[in-house]
TrEMBL record:
This is Cysteine desulfurase. Keywords: Pyridoxal phosphate. Gene3D superfamilies: Aspartate Aminotransferase, domain 1, Type I PLP-dependent aspartate aminotransferase-like (Major domain). Residues 26-400 form the Aminotransferase class V domain.
Amino acid sequence: MSELDITWVRAQFPAFSEPTLQGLAFFENAGGSYTCKPVIDRLTRYYHQRKVQPYGPYDASRLAGDEMDEARTRLAAMMGVDTDELSFGPSTTQNTYVLAQAFRRYLPEGSAIVVTNQDHEANSGPWRRLAEDGVEVREWQIDPDTGHLDPTALDTLLDDGKVKLVCFPHCSNVVGEVNDVTAICAKARAAGAFTCVDGVSYAPHGFVNVDALGADIYLFSAYKTYGPHQGIMVIRRALGTALPNQGHFFNGDVLYKRFTPAGPDHAQIAASAGMADYFDAMAAHHGITGEASARAAGVHDLMRAHEGRLLQPLLDYLTSKNSVRLLGPSRAEGRAPTIAIATQRPAAGLAERLAPLGIMAGGGDFYAVRALTALGIDPALGVLRVSFTHYTSESDVAKLMDALDRVL
């Protein structure tokens, strides 16, 4: 099929048949997506049949461990990396914090790192705190009018050879523009720096091939990609084995355990295989074939095409309104369907007024205080954010625009 079968897609999500959600259009997907049925089924099965310590000699334990391994194996294959280069943690914020502690010990004296003011605070704050240990923190700043992160501005930050790590988002959770990760990673690598890419706001719109991107670290959240509340972390082997172990000393030789010091949530990791089930089923339904990474790429393109078709009319509608400021590009190409708008009124109040009209959206700063401040927006007022993904329908978007007409 050349277009996404939206009827089939929505049938894979129990939320769309849930009586309490009927008549409501969900536009806070950037905060967390609906969960697909295969994930729910696996989680239910695990709690019913396998909620024991995994990797033991008896059947329930063996099956529990097998399903955890299955999740890691299949998701890693979809993302073009080795199985042990992918690990789970309680959240992306926590995963980033653990990584920052590893770099705290790893970076030689006189080192510098680069962070942006386009980021969600999770991929900025932990890295900025390295300044307390003498690491020089350089800020790659966005354009104050557009929110654009100019790759040429990175050149001057890298020119003296001191930078050992560049941290940036694949896509901002308020600006929406998709950064050229491949080009940025190549630029950093040429300057002798590793890269840490926050993929939280992009991954809901399709899993990426991390090997093709060239990122050393790629982070995202399963609960925003139709799965359970886990952080997923890809660390390429060269960097992962060079950084000091942050886990138990006896796990130091196991790459996927080196940066997960807390005991894993067995059931949620096992249920994460349901994300692979869903993507594989979507590929099969739409006639997408090939190896795991090729199927994932095909599903990615299918999802992004559908989102773009719905996104452009909404962007056109918002740019026609003199009373609002649209953050980020006004064209669907090159941006995610995460749309933030600023007005002279508190955004939380606008979200509250949308709720009785059947629109589930959010208002606030969304942990992007630095980005909003750089754009001249008072974080106390915040922005109204309407975000969607591939299971959103044309009728949802029409309902949103009608509600915005009444609220704005």
